[in-house]
Sequence to fold (66 residues):
Amino acid sequence: MKLNVLEILKHLPRTNCKECGEPTCMAFASKLLKKETTLQACPPLFTPEYESKRRDIQELMAGIAA
Ligand code: SF4
Fold:
């Protein structure tokens, strides 16, 4: 399956908190896919609440890097 923005978005917090500097999680997902940013730019993903989602995205990203 080809990874797309919606697939990444599914695993983001989807709170549009803007901590990453993007206006929405969708915008962040788009940049992530184009490798214009990194997961580290989304602080909420590194909280225990979203740990499993972060792992999911890391697996997805590892898939496209290969
Ligand atoms: S920091 Fe994370 S949760 Fe907040 S808007 Fe950016 S991608 Fe979404």
User: Anything to note?
Assistant: The chain has one domain: 5-65. The chain has three helices and no strands. The radius of gyration is 11 Å.
